[in-house]
Design brief:
Elements lengths: L2 H13 L38 E9 L2 E13 L2 E8 L2 H5 L5 H5 L3 E2 L4 E2 L8 E5 L4 E5 L24 E15 L4 E16 L2 E13 L5 E16 L4 E9 L9 E9 L15 E5 L3 E7 L2 E8 L2 E5 L9 E8 L4 E7 L12 E10 L11 E10 L3 E10 L2 E11 L5 E13 L3 E16 L4 E11 L6 H10 L6 E13 L4 E12 L5 E14 L2 E15 L2 E14 L3 E10 L2 E13 L2 E10 L3 E10 L3 E10 L3 E15 L2 E5 L8 E5 L7 E3 L5 E2 L5 E4 L8 E5 L8 E5 L1 E4 L6 E5 L1 E4 L1 E9 L10 E4 L4 E4 L5 E7 L4 E6 L2 E7 L11 E7 H6 L1
Parallel strand pairs: 1-7, 39-46, 48-54
Antiparallel strand pairs: 1-2, 2-3, 4-5, 6-7, 8-9, 8-37, 9-10, 10-11, 11-12, 12-13, 13-20, 14-17, 15-16, 15-18, 18-19, 20-21, 21-22, 22-23, 23-24, 24-25, 25-26, 26-27, 27-28, 28-29, 29-30, 30-31, 31-32, 32-33, 33-34, 34-35, 35-36, 36-37, 37-38, 39-42, 40-41, 40-43, 43-45, 44-47, 48-51, 49-50, ...
């Protein structure tokens, strides 16, 4: 709202004497400096909080929680023309999140179309046109459970139909003197999808082109997974059909084609959900990090030299993950991460379950072996006990598991289970064995630390998981049989000392193969040195034992803030017998761009490198280059983004989760409007559309226009919104944005008289662009050549005018002739 509107409202308020709220307010118009006091339209101000009958686009707030923008109707009160009643429709009431008992007590009026507010005891409603807000107060006892940033299922949004194509492309060219030639690689992965109603159809793809030093080339493209899924909110579950990977806490993971019905933890409040795995490592140079599961690329990105943490994997990922760190000199780090979750506990009185049926399949989409059925469940017994178990049955393989979990309260949580399998393979005969597992987890909030021992597993020699059985039958020989698995993670924050400690240990032994181990530890501390604030020192060390090979590394670094957003860093590392010292400078050009430059020396050579990251509106782009004397020169480029298209519009955009949830923001055809979700700002395209991709499933996401970054000729009358979207949804939200010149104008009728004082001006979208002042003087915004605007009083559109070319309004105050509607029709 501009200042002139505020002044007019304030003046009208001062003219009104104190009166009972229920009585009409009488204005002393003698105080107004208006020549024609009879030509006034002040009816809208005569009754406190009076809203004229009609439809309004309002932001609805329930108990100070923003519900979203709704079209709200006010109906004239029968027999009282100076009053109106709020009409809340059935669809709008469904969004309130009322509990079952409150829904049963609802009554309606106006032929069953409007809610009787008195049917919800204690409910109050207040419309506020000055802020375009409807305030609703509903007692908590009438509402379902609501947590901060989380809404009940009644408020979840399935989104709109549309298509999407997400991609991550990495290109790298390395000229190696040791390999006597240039090696080039182009790889990509992503998701193509179609949303129809509540169904999400998805296809995961990955591709690779290699060109070796001897001009040999290799090309590969494959659809790694074709599937569809939908949310079933009433069951707090998801239904999936097609190709997938079994997501089982008890029976591991393998590829299959079929259908599954699983409880979805994402539908629970955040404090009741599980957690996603975190990947940590150290890159020696500008490197590409690839995370795979059974050959399928789950995640790919480029990282600069030094420690890295990947924390945005989907929390549905389970089983073992293969991590490849591909350095620019061609060397490769490989290690595995076990994503074993916290103990299998369920809230008292509830049941979590997973049901799957199908047939194992391979990468060529061929079915193999016999059909299988599996199910598992966990029942939350009172007093912190959980009982869980499951079974998997196929023609040649059967497995059954039972377990118990216990919430130890202040001492954490622990679980224990045992699984027995029986496998029949021509090469092996019949193999029967057991596997035992225990897990422990504890978060010590008072000590800012967490330990996850998840955990210890011992498998007898004749025990085979379904995944191991399938690999054995496929290869016609016994593959690596797991024997013991240790997984332990510990983290601790020493707040007063500014020290963080992290430790992870994975140990895997086999009955018929060499063991593998992975140790990693990190220490980091922040402190001040004189005028230097937030100086950081970190020490990272790791050891990886795999395939009869050892990979050790130690990385020490110090970072000193420099010149605002920049920093100078020194690092020293030891890896595979070689030591490297590096000096680098990092700086953030702006919110969307940052870079780093490095120079280093080792026992064998000197090196320089650069790293540039751009978080653009259309894509996330990372470019890197490295050179090591007498060894290699390398350049890399990574582009990650997506295209989302719907009947409401389309836009290119950067993305975070491939094929994931997103929100299309409509700025009503106005380009270059800065909008923001959780991440960096993005701007609307030439069609007035932008896509916010950093959106969480079943989580109250906030999106807003960055008002301080708006151009001078753009005004946002409604700049915030929110959305709680189901998994994979394409949400849609429209902002109220006005674009055009702002100026004082004089609006006159065809008889050279001014419209009534207090009348409103609206554009063709129904947006209010001005209020008529004395003698027709109006501070008008949204002016653009050829735009049609209308003037309203007495609750109706009375006349309209067309904004002329700007060239006619340069020397003096612009006069606009407002033609009455009947005359315009006669003409």
């Amino acid at each position: 709202m501009d200042r002139r509107k505020v002044l007019i409202s304030a003046a009208l308020y001062c003219l009104a004497p104190c009166s009972d709220a229920a009585e009409a307010i009488q204005f002393n118009t003698d105080m107004l400096d208006v020549k024609d006091r009879q030509n006034l339209d002040l009816n809208v101000f005569s009754v406190e909080n009076f809203i004229m009958p009609g439809q309004y686009s309002l932001s609805v707030k329930i108990n100070s929680t923003l519900l979203g923008e709704q079209t709200v109707t006010y109906i004239a009160t029968e027999g009282d023309p100076k009053n109106s009643q709020l009409c809340l429709s059935i669809d709008q009431v469904d969004l309130f999140g009322l509990n079952a008992s409150a829904k049963k007590a609802l009554t309606w009026w106006n032929g069953g179309e409007c809610l009787d507010l008195e049917s919800i005891p204690g409910m109050q409603a207040r419309g506020e046109l000055s802020t375009s807000t409807l305030h609703l107060s509903i007692p908590q006892e009438s509402l379902d459970y609501v947590a901060p940033n989380w809404d009940p299922p009644s408020r979840w949004d399935e989104g709109i139909p549309g298509i999407l194509f997400d991609y991550s492309v990495n290109a790298q060219s390395t000229d190696s003197k040791q390999a006597h030639g240039r090696r080039e690689n182009l790889s990509g992965n992503g998701v193509a999808g179609l949303n129809i109603g509540s169904w999400r159809l998805r296809g995961d793809w990955q591709a690779q082109i290699d060109r070796g030093a001897e001009q040999t080339s290799r090309q590969q493209f494959t659809w790694s997974r074709l599937y569809a899924y939908t949310a079933l909110p009433s069951l707090r579950s998801s239904l999936s059909v097609g190709e997938d990977y079994l997501n089982s806490e008890l029976f591991g993971s393998f590829r299959y084609t079929g259908a599954s019905l699983n409880s979805n933890e994402s539908m629970l409040p955040p404090n009741l959900r599980g957690y996603a795995p975190e990947i940590r490592g150290v890159a020696k140079s500008n490197a590409r990090v690839v995370i795979l599961q059974q050959g399928r690329v789950l995640y790919s990105t480029q990282v600069p030299p030094g420690p890295f943490r990947i924390r945005d994997l989907n929390d549905a990922v389970s089983g073992k993950l293969d991590v490849h760190v591909e350095e620019q000199d061609g060397s490769l780090q490989e290690f595995q991460v076990d994503t074993a979750s916290i103990p299998y506990l369920t809230r008292p009185g509830t049941v979590r379950y997973k049901l799957t049926a199908g047939q194992p399949s391979d990468w060529q989409h061929n079915l193999e072996g016999s059909s299988f059925t599996t199910g598992e469940a966990s029942w939350g017994v009172a007093n912190g006990w959980s009982l869980y178990g499951g079974a998997l049955a196929a023609k040649d393989y059967q497995s059954i598991a039972v377990g118990v979990g216990r919430d130890l309260s202040a001492f954490g949580a622990i679980s224990f289970d045992v699984t027995q399998s029986q496998a029949n393979a021509p090469e092996l005969g019949t193999m029967t064995g057991k596997s035992y597992r225990t897990s422990y987890s504890k978060r010590f909030d008072e000590y800012d630390s967490q330990v996850t021992f998840a955990g210890y597993r011992f498998s007898e020699k004749n025990y085979l998981s379904m995944g191991e059985f399938l690999e054995t039958r496929r290869d016609h020989q016994l593959i690596k049989q797991s024997k013991e698995l240790y997984t332990a993670t510990f983290s601790k924050q020493f707040v007063d000392a500014g020290l963080n400690v992290y430790f992870n240990y994975n140990h895997q032994t086999y009955w018929n193969n060499q063991p593998s181990d992975r140790y990693s530890a990190s220490l980091s501390r922040y402190f001040n040195i004189g005028r230097l604030k937030n100086v950081s020192v970190s020490l990272n060390a790791y050891r990886s034992l795999m395939n009869n090979g050892t990979d050790d590394g130690v990385y020490l670094s110090m970072s000193i803030p420099w010149d605002g957003g920049g920093s100078i860093s020194y690092s020293a590392s030891i890896n595979r017998g070689d030591s490297l010292q590096n000096l680098s400078y990092y700086d953030q050009i702006d919110e969307q761009n940052h870079y780093s430059l490095s120079a280093g020396t080792s026992k064998s050579a000197e090196s320089i490198s650069g790293f540039l990251s751009h978080s653009g509106d259309l894509a996330q782009i990372v470019a890197s280059a490295s050179h090591q004397t007498d060894s290699y020169s390398s350049m890399g480029l990574s582009i990650q983004g997506g295209l989302t298209a719907t009947t409401k519009g389309a836009a290119l955009h950067r993305n975070t989760v491939m094929g994931g949830t997103r929100l299309i923001v409509d700025t009503q055809g106005i380009s270059d409007v800065p909008v923001r979700g959780q991440g960096n700002t993005t701007r609307s395209n030439v069609f007035g559309k932008a896509v916010i991709a950093d959106v969480n499933n079943y989580y109250r996401n906030q999106v807003s226009i960055e008002l301080d970054k708006l151009a001078d000729d753009i005004e946002a009358t409604r700049s915030t919104s929110q959305a709680t979207l189901t998994e994979g949804a394409i949400g849609y939200r429209q902002f109220d944005v006005i674009s055009g010149k702002k100026a004082m104008v004089r609006i006159l009728l065809d008889n050279n008289e001014a419209p009534p004082f207090g009348a409103t001006v609206k554009n063709n979208l129904g947006q209010e662009t001005g209020i008529i002042g004395e003698a027709g003087s109006t501070y008008l915004n949204g002016m653009g050549p050829g735009r049609i605007m209308s003037v309203y009083w007495d609750g109706e559109e009375q006349c309209h005018f067309t904004v002329p070319n700007e060239s006619t309004a340069e020397e003096h105050e612009l006069e606009l002739l407002c033609q009455t509607n009947h005359q315009a029709g006669d003409a």
